[in-house]
Amino acid sequence: MRPPLLHRRCPEVVGSLPFLRLGKAPTPVQPLPGLGTRAELWIKDESGYGDGGWGGNKVRKLEWLLPEARRRGARTILTVGGLGTNWGLAAARYAREMGLGVALGLIDHPVDEHVRAQLVRLRASGARLHFLHSKTRLILAAPWLFARHSHGRTLPYYLPAGGSSPLGTLGAVEIALELGAQVEAGELPEPTWLVTAVGSGGTAAGLALGLRLAGLRTRVLGVVVNDTLKLDPASLLGLARRSAALLRARGADLNGAEPALDTIRTETAWLGNGYAHPTRAGDHALTRASTQAGLTLEHTYTAKALAALLDLDATGRLDGGPVVFLQTHGPR
Ligand SMILES: *Cc1c(COP(=O)(O)O)cnc(C)c1O
Questions:
Q1: Which of 41, 185, 224, 324 is deepest in the core (most CB within 10 A)?
Q2: Domain 5-56+167-327: CATH architecture, name and number where available
Q3: Sign of CA dihedral 121, 301, 199, 14
Q4: How many other C-beta atoms lie within 10 A of the C-beta of residue 113?
Q5: Positive or negative CA dihedral for 175, 114, 53, 63?
Q6: How far is residue 276's CA from residue 238's CA, in Å, rounded to a whole number?
């Protein structure tokens, strides 16, 4: 197993923060000239990350979360998401391989073909599904869910939406450390911006922390695709700081390498009517990515993130670049 770069950067945490490699690292970086952007555009491609190439960015979080569930002696992971949750599906699939069950509280959002297909996969995944429809009903049902999925006195290991706990956030720290090593090796120039979709925040927060740990000046441009959580720069920075605090609590010496507020920028103008609501700009970016760059995107996250990148580029708001687009979507 290839150890995580975080264990090399912070050797003090090796014993107390166990890691389980689930994919092939590092994920590739490539130039992406086909879209004709003004700024030099690169892609860091997470789409093949995972067992047998099955995954996406949620697998990176599970590499830290699953060993922790085992360390705690948990039998079940209890977590939440929307009907088409990539997170819930990835958790169900990888937890099962470790003999852990997954229980999911699901809330409603628009259902398209992709979400319908996700639901079929979720039903087949072995996860126990609870259709609670709204956030309010989910919160009201929480005590019942905990009781229902306890084994004797062992409570389920609860994880927030998207796996974006301070520990899960280390998954994106690792992506940023990889990018740092790739810059250092001369595979790509130091980017001005690293662009990602922001669904539950762990990815953007972890990237911001990881870029500082890697010693890069690159900033995170987070395209917000979810209106049901607080995902402004201060909230994302708060999560990044809680991850840094977790590392320090386990003995890591971060040398003062903490992200500052100006290292995270969020854009909310590409959200449209809300989480999982397709937008015209997103549809357009999805088609362009496919025809001009051979890139497969989906409507909820990556299409909106690329739409924002292309619009900001066209109006000269990316500080000249180079810019890296994080391809977070994995095959399903
Ligand atoms: C979950 C997800 C994201 C966003 O990651 P968060 O850590 O939840 O913000 C981006 N792209 C895809 C395809 C995802 O499934």
A1: 324
A2: 3-Layer(aba) Sandwich (3.40)
A3: positive
A4: 8
A5: positive
A6: 25
Mean pLDDT, residues 228-240 taken together: 97
Report whether pLDDT(117) > 90.
yes
**Cα–Cα distance list, 291 to 50, 112, 233, 282, 295 (Å):** 26, 22, 33, 14, 8
**Which of ligand 1's atoms lies nearest the C-alpha of 168?**
7
What is the structure's pLDDT at 332? 65
CA 162 to centroid of ligand 1, rounded, Å: 7
Ligand 1, closest atom to CA 222?
9
Enumerate the domain spans of the chain.
5-56+167-327, 72-162
- Dump pLDDT digits (tens) for 16-54: 999 999 999 999 999 999 999 999 999 999 999 998 878
Look up residue 269 and give its amino acid: A
pTM over 0.90: yes
Which pLDDT score, from 0 to 100, does residue 54 have?
A: 80
Task: Please give the pLDDT value at position 316.
Answer: 96
Q: How does 250-264 read in b/e, with b if 16+ C-beta sit within 10 Å?
A: eebeeeeebbeeebb
Q: What are 83's two structure tokens?
A: 């009907």
Kindly report the backbone phi and psi dihedral angles of residue 42, in degrees, each rounded to the nearest multiple of 5, phi listed first.
-125, 160
**Cβ of 57 below 6 Å from ligand 1:** yes
The rounded Cα 165 to chain-centroid distance in angstroms is: 11
Which CATH fold would you assign to the domain 72-162?
Answer: Rossmann fold (3.40.50)
Structure tokens, 197 = 């979709």
Which residues neighbour 176 within 8 Å (Cβ) at sequence distance 6 or greater?
194, 206, 207, 208, 209, 210, 211, 213, 214, 216
Kindly state if the Cβ of 55 falls inside 6 Å of ligand 1. Answer: no
Ligand 1 contact, 169 CB (< 6 A): no
